[in-house]
């Protein structure tokens, strides 16, 4: 039989990696797709997936598939409290758009930016 200390040690071992902490920090802002994590962290998809497997097996994150994209999110409210205590509060939107990222969040933000700039351009030239 495992004790609560064994469970806690298991979760803390999953947290004891800089890239996994970065991933969890990004997920505090909401659901994020793997391609966005790859672009934001500058790591290969296979490496990001390895880290996500560890987090998923520890019961800290869960995946949702949407077509070809896989999105991850935090599943443990206690984890959010722990991350806030160790990393500080979430400031602004953690999933900021990244140029060149093919995820739906970035594509939508990029399109909005182009439309906004396009409208400003048209307005100036009228």
Shape: globular
What percent strand? 5-15%
Number of strands: 3
The span between the termini is 75 Å
Give me the CATH superfamily. Answer: Winged helix-like DNA-binding domain superfamily/Winged helix DNA-binding domain
- Give the helix tally: 6
> What is the averaged pLDDT score?
82
Task: Please describe the topology of this protein.
Layout: H1 4-15, H2 18-27, E1 32-33, H3 34-41, H4 45-57, E2 61-66, E3 69-74, H5 77-87, H6 104-124
Antiparallel strand pairs: 1-3, 2-3
What does this structure look like?
The chain is mostly helical. It has one domain: Arc Repressor Mutant, subunit A (Orthogonal Bundle). Helix content is 60%, strand content 11%. The protein is built from six helices and three strands. A three-stranded antiparallel sheet has the order 1-3-2. The longest helix has 21 residues.
Features:
Arc Repressor Mutant, subunit A, disordered C terminus, 126 residues, 3 strands, mainly alpha, 6 helices
What's a quick, concise take on this entry?
By secondary structure, the chain is mainly α. It contains 6 helices and 3 strands, in the order H-H-E-H-H-E-E-H-H.
